[in-house]
User: Which sequence fits this backbone?
């Protein structure tokens, strides 16, 4: 009970203290020396060295100046007053240099980001041409190489007769088979087919892929030209044999053997002895 009475008696005293403190306003500190220091610390002015000196008969009488900037001041204060302008926010100040460097770094970062975005987009585009999954959609393939390389896919992998080899007749096929030409042509055909398959199934740059297309096309044209030449030569040889068979005067005897030089001279003399 006594404690409650004490608390009630203290409460009016606290209220009176709060009321009295509210009547006093906070007085703003406006020290000219501190204001001058603030100006030196930013960008406004390098100078206004307050407090100012006061002299009487040539004697310094301002104790504040003497202890801040004068003879009684620390050496660091005098070096600061007599030194160079070190305002961080002056036109060539450290802080402005940092701001300029930061701005430069931001511009460089934008350039790097733009370059990286360009590289990324180009990488995506290159990947679209690298992978073999998109070769059928390439414009140059659709416009030219698809049509030019189509005969390779239509040609059999292992032709077995003169029709598949695109020859004239069976006799021509047998002649090329006997001379070993068919085997060599089959090896060249395998190389062409393999190069074509690699150009269509492997992942590679777009330029290299079209170089392989072009090399395959050149090899195919040479193969077709050689096949046509062999076909024509074999046909001519077969026709010549048929001519020899049909004209017995030009045919060789079945058991013909070359004669010696003496025998040839003797036969010629016997043949022409009644004419001269």
Assistant:
């Amino acid at each position: 009970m006594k404690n409650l009475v004490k608390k009630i008696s203290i409460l009016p005293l606290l209220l009176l203290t709060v009321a009295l403190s509210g009547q006093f306003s906070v007085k703003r500190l406006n020290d000219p020396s501190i204001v001058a220091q603030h100006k030196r610390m930013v960008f406004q002015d390098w100078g206004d060295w307050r407090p100012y000196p006061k002299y009487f008969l040539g004697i310094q009488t301002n104790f504040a100046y003497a202890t801040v900037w004068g003879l009684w001041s620390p050496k660091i204060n005098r070096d600061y007053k007599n030194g160079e302008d070190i305002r961080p926010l002056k036109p060539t100040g450290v802080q402005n240099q940092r701001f300029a460097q930061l701005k430069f770094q931001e511009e460089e970062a934008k350039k790097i980001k733009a370059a990286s975005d360009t590289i990324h987009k180009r990488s995506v585009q290159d990947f679209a041409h690298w992978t073999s999954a998109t070769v059928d959609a390439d414009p140059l393939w659709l416009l030219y190489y698809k049509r030019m390389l189509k005969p390779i896919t239509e040609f059999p992998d292992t032709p077995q007769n003169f029709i598949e080899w695109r020859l004239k007749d069976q006799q021509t096929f047998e002649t090329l088979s006997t001379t070993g030409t068919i085997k060599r042509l089959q090896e060249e055909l395998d190389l062409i087919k393999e190069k074509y398959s690699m150009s269509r199934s492997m992942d590679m740059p777009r330029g290299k892929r079209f170089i392989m297309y072009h090399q395959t096309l050149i090899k195919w044209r040479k193969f077709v030209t050689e096949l046509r030449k062999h076909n024509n030569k074999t046909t001519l040889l077969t026709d010549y044999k048929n001519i020899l068979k049909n004209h017995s005067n030009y045919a060789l005897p079945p058991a013909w053997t070359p004669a010696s030089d003496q025998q040839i001279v003797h036969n010629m003399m016997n043949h022409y002895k009644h004419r001269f």
Observations:
- The chain has three domains: 31-90, 93-130, 134-247.
- Residues 134-247 form one domain.
